[in-house]
Amino acid sequence: MPELPEVEVVRRGLSRWITNQEVLDVEVLDPRSVRRHRQGPIDFVTSLRQAVLEQPQRRGKYLWIPLHHAPIEQKSPTALVVHLGMSGQILLSHHSAPAPHHLRIRLRLDSASGHGQAPTELRFVDQRIFGGLYLDRLVPTADEPDELIPTTVTHIGRDPLDNHFDVDHIYQVLSKKQTAIKRALLDQNLVSGIGNIYADEALWRAKIHYNRPCNRLSRKQVRTLYQCVQKVMEQALKEGGTSFDALYVNVNGESGYFDRSLNAYHQEGKYCRRCLAEGYDTFIRRDKFMNRSSYYCPRCQRKPRTTQR
DNA sequence: ACTCTGTCCTGGAAGC
DNA sequence: TGCTTCCAGGACAGAG
């Protein structure tokens, strides 16, 4: 399940190989993968053809590649926006390599214009079709006029690895929220890039129960929690991201190995590693929360007294 | 204004 | 064996 570290691994791979390459041709094999492109699949193909791909950017789980249309007068800057959803992959291959099973979109690239052994095709593969590609206009952000982001990403909050990430501002917002802390962690408008895996891992590290009301957390607890988010994401990035199966891979099709470092997520029934080190044999538990699983240690992460859903 | 649920999707696993 | 049901969850529309 791609969250921030996985998307960043993909961004770095793309940056190395596709920057300054021209799109020779585009093929949409499943129109559902471009459903967020309002003007439809045909416009997607014709608008992307002959565009030159610039340095890929990211905010949270959103990835975008600014486009440069060499021969055409630039109306306003645009970008190819990528969201991997649940199972999306960006793969760089030779165009003659066999097509993977869930191949949805292919971009033929002009490898001759760039690096010698560059791949000749960018492929979007997506089993569950929650992800997709679309074109969008780039606009300056509200607080940094030199920073351009797609209009559809303006409502997304800065992520924990962003230089302008401001934890005191986050605390101010959280102190007014009634809702459970995990719901706030997963809310991409406040802070982006956190999904179910890193939410559970950060809460475990910070020893906070997923159902703790936001407005009952101290400034210190909020600081600690977001430091834990940053630490767990930095470690995951170092280890190439989390892969449970073939659903998440980097641009070369390789899996990350952060799943071996997980302390809570997917660890139901296993000993809590921290408790074990302290001489307790507590098991990690799984609760249903927000229609998904929440993994936690019942000793380290005590339930709030007033349990609300 | 804020909070929360339902929906989109596929395929592997579990249940009968 | 073969069928059905469940489960995974990111983002957003729309309900409360």
TrEMBL record:
Enzyme Commission number, as recorded: 3.2.2.23, 4.2.99.18
Record InterPro entries: FPG_cat (IPR012319), FPG_Glyclase (IPR020629), FPG_N (IPR035937), H2TH_FPG (IPR015886), Ribosomal_uS13-like_H2TH (IPR010979), Znf_DNA_glyclase/AP_lyase (IPR000214)
Active site: 2 (schiff-base intermediate with dna), 3 (proton donor), 61 (proton donor), 292 (proton donor)
SMART domains per the UniProt record, alphabetical: Fapy_DNA_glyco, H2TH
Catalysed reactions listed for this entry: 2'-deoxyribonucleotide-(2'-deoxyribose 5'-phosphate)-2'-deoxyribonucleotide-DNA = a 3'-end 2'-deoxyribonucleotide-(2,3-dehydro-2,3-deoxyribose 5'-phosphate)-DNA + a 5'-end 5'-phospho-2'-deoxyribonucleoside-DNA + H(+); Hydrolysis of DNA containing ring-opened 7-methylguanine residues, releasing 2,6-diamino-4-hydroxy-5-(N-methyl)formamidopyrimidine
Single biological process term from Gene Ontology: response to oxidative stress
UniProt-listed Pfam families: Fapy_DNA_glyco, H2TH
Record keywords, A-Z: DNA damage, DNA repair, DNA-binding, Glycosidase, Hydrolase, Lyase, Metal-binding, Multifunctional enzyme, Zinc, Zinc-finger
Named cofactor requirement(s): Zn(2+)
Protein family membership: Belongs to the FPG family.
HAMAP family in UniProt: Fapy_DNA_glycosyl
UniProt-recorded name of the protein: Formamidopyrimidine-DNA glycosylase
Source organism of the structure: Auritidibacter ignavus
Organism placement in taxonomy: Bacteria, Bacillati, Actinomycetota, Actinomycetes, Micrococcales
